[in-house]
Write a structure and sequence with these properties.
This protein has 458 residues and is an alpha/beta fold. It folds into 4 domains: 77 residues, DnaA, N-terminal domain (GMP Synthetase, Chain A, domain 3, 2-Layer Sandwich); 173 residues, 3-Layer(aba) Sandwich (Rossmann fold); 73 residues, Helicase, Ruva Protein, domain 3, CATH 1.10.8.60; 89 residues, Chromosomal Replication Initiator Protein Dnaa, Chain: A. 52% of the residues lie in helices and 10% in strands. It contains 20 helices and 9 strands. The strands form 2 sheets. The protein has a 6-stranded parallel beta sheet, sandwiched between helices. Strands 1-2-3 form a 3-stranded mixed beta sheet. Helix 9 links the parallel strand 7 and strand 8. The longest helix has 18 residues. 36% of the residues are buried.
Length: 458
């Protein structure tokens, strides 16, 4: 029986978080929190400020979910309350009428509580995520309809950490439940499945666990890249996937690598992963990053925040290129820092937040020469040929155009200065930059290449 002692529950969660978070992050965000009470199945936790509450709920939902699951507290809700602010009594969410067959077991809805913002309508689509988002929408829209020539079962979404894979996956589950509240939808992270399986093996009774997951209509399987080191877990997941696929149940899988690059995975499991549609998510480009920031500020959690100036959003979008999580985290940190010193968010505050987080000078320029050299290396052409060789061959022309585009995007170099570096007229540089932008819109592979290069240059 689960403890009703709030301190004991919080100690279990803290222990799980301490294993996941860097020491500095744990000290900054988790250490100041204190348990208050347990009420109606929820643990009330006191946080020191509104900004701290915002950070925890926006930046750490997956870490909290893992800590709860690993501590055997997966069904425990968390309520964060700001120190010194009277807590409003929360009312239970109204439940939708179920369309499940009379007499059947209730539908299994197993979304982590802090994933409430992961819906498809909150996902900002950019060139690097168009296919994955379109596939997610199609899974929801076509569920229960006649089969089409294009199979999306399983839907396998892969990409780097913090790019929105889990957001899309959970968004699919919620979208399906909107269409049919009686569906059995379960979210399952591989590491948490491994922990659950370990307990079942010790009890010498794994069959009930396997059947528990086989009875679902929709399985959302997160982070399969960790499967390579889990022999018995692979076997159990294979049997679960096999059963669900044979019965036409929808499966959505996420990974940081495509199926063929999953090291240590059995070939038969990789074959199942590749049966349906594989879609990747790439880091967002500058325009998409701006759109993500503006969409984020529409969330109810940000309604109390003073207006964020456009130059602050631009600075954040230029500095946080790696992932959506980095981008949202930097925005939240700027808001947090402004609230600490009691001033509205400004470019000065953003500079201080960036320097405090990265240790780098916020306005330190990237020299164009570094951009040109990294572009030459990426495209495997010599630096001298890139800068000086007169050629219309694609092997030289395309890298040169990309170098000019990056000099504008990263270093904000004037067209005349870029032209002088290549001994060309500034109008040629303008045409080159426009050409790269147009091709990035038309060619996803080229977009990924340029975006990866842009994100690697700091």
């Amino acid at each position: 029986m689960r403890s009703a002692d709030p301190t004991a529950l919080w100690d279990t969660i803290r222990l799980g978080l301490s294993k996941q978070l860097p020491e500095a992050s744990f000290r900054e965000w988790i250490a100041p929190c204190e348990p208050l009470k347990v009420k109606d199945g929820a643990l009330w936790i006191q946080v020191p400020s509104a900004a701290a509450k915002l950070w925890i709920e926006q930046q750490l939902p997956e870490e909290f979910n893992d800590a709860l699951a690993q501590g055997g507290l997966a069904d425990l809700r968390l309520e964060f309350h700001i120190s010194g602010v009277p807590a409003a009594e929360s009312k239970p969410s109204p439940k939708k009428a179920s369309t499940a067959t009379p007499g059947a077991e209730p539908a299994a809805i197993s979304f982590p509580y802090l994933f409430n913002r992961y819906t498809l309508d909150r996902f900002v689509v950019g060139p690097g995520s168009q296919l994955a988002f379109a596939a997610a929408k199609a899974v929801v829209d076509s569920y229960g309809k006649a089969a089409t020539p294009l199979s999306m079962n399983p839907l396998f979404i892969y990409g780097g950490a913090g790019l929105g894979k889990t957001h899309l996956m959970v968004g699919i589950g919620k979208g399906l439940l909107e269409r049919d509240p009686g569906l059995r939808v379960v979210y399952l992270k591989v590491d948490n499945f491994f922990n659950e399986l370990t307990v079942a093996i010790r009890a010498k009774n794994t069959e009930p666990m396997r059947k528990k997951y086989q009875q679902n209509d929709v399985l959302l399987l997160d982070d399969v890249q960790t499967l390579g080191k889990m022999e018995r877990t692979q076997e159990e997941i294979f049997h679960i996937l096999e059963h669900l696929l044979q019965h036409g149940r929808q499966i959505v899988i996420t990974s940081d690598k495509p199926p063929q690059r999953l090291e240590g995975c059995h070939e038969r499991l990789i074959t199942r992963f590749k049966w349906g549609l594989t879609a990747d998510i790439q880091p967002p480009d500058f325009e998409t990053r701006i759109a993500i920031l503006k969409k984020k500020l529409e969330d109810v959690d940000f309604h109390h925040v003073p207006p964020i100036p456009e130059d602050v959003l631009t600075f954040i979008a230029h500095k946080a290129k790696g992932s959506v999580r980095d981008l949202e985290g930097f925005l939240t940190r700027v808001i947090f820092q402004a609230s600490l010193i009691g001033v509205p968010p400004s470019l000065e505050v953003a500079h201080a937040a960036f320097q405090g987080q990265s240790g780098e000078e916020p306005t330190a320029p990237v020299h164009p020469d570094r951009i040109y050299r990294m572009t030459a290396e990426t495209f495997n052409v010599s630096f001298v040929d890139l800068m000086k060789k007169r050629s219309r061959q694609q092997a030289i022309l395309v890298p040169r155009q990309v170098a000019m585009y990056l000099a504008r995007e990263i270093a904000s170099s004037p067209f005349t200065d870029i032209g002088r570096s290549f001994n060309m007229h500034h109008s040629t540089v303008m045409n080159a930059v426009d050409s790269v932008r147009d091709r990035m819109k038309r060619d996803p592979e080229f977009h990924r290449l340029v975006q990866a290069l842009l994100n690697s240059i700091h």
